[in-house]
Input
Amino acid sequence: MANFYFKNFPFIKYSFGDNEPEVYFQKLSAAIDLFDDIKQNVSFTTKQTILDFERPDTLSYRLYNTVDYYWTFFLLNDKLRESGWPLHTDREQEIIEERYPHWSFITTGFFSGLLSKDQELFVTGVGVSAYAYVVKSDPSLGQIVLAPTFEKQSLVDIDNPRVPMSQSEVNLYFPSIQALTFETNDVEYTLSGAFGPNSTTKEYLGVHHWEDTDGEYGQIDPLVQNTTGLKRITFKDNLQKRNQDIREIAVIRPGVINQIAGEFQKLIKS
Output
């Protein structure tokens, strides 16, 4: 189905390696301003929602009774080129867990400038005395993203204080983390959780940002965690909202699609 889009792209000499001979290949960077002009003309476009499980070719067929015009969606919508086609809803959770696989710890303690990536942490809570490391930290949110080293403190062997910790144990006990301890420049620091036993969650349920009642980004004092009037937007919330936004696109009206696609090919060929 890609042939219609590329059929009039010009050919140029191109080498696919430093020591490879030049061959003729289509100039994929060929671009024109036609679609930028169309974006500004509402008489040529209309709004459309990408349905769940719908592909570019099937949307083209639904609108135009042919799969040939799938490429117009990408030229007309910057967000599709930047973010790609929206995820199917049954893939959202899988992708969310892949992108945010760690743990989020929220504290009112001060740690700006004290933590570095991969720094070791000793984490404690109800039923847990284990080791983790810093994935990233954001003092403006009071949030530390951490991952387990899969070691815990032995309660019986003082000569070998660390013993292996299984993934099932991590899943069971890490949500109970209420404090973490670390050492920086030979000084030991302990940070307490801001919300007691609810201070640690899976990373995708951690704070992406806070929003006010108008949906604008809000700011908090991380040393107080007073969120009155603000809504917590998690990484999961943000991805799902962004995915839904990508579904709402502009498309060329069926009555003018043949004319515009033909003009595009003529301009590319010229």
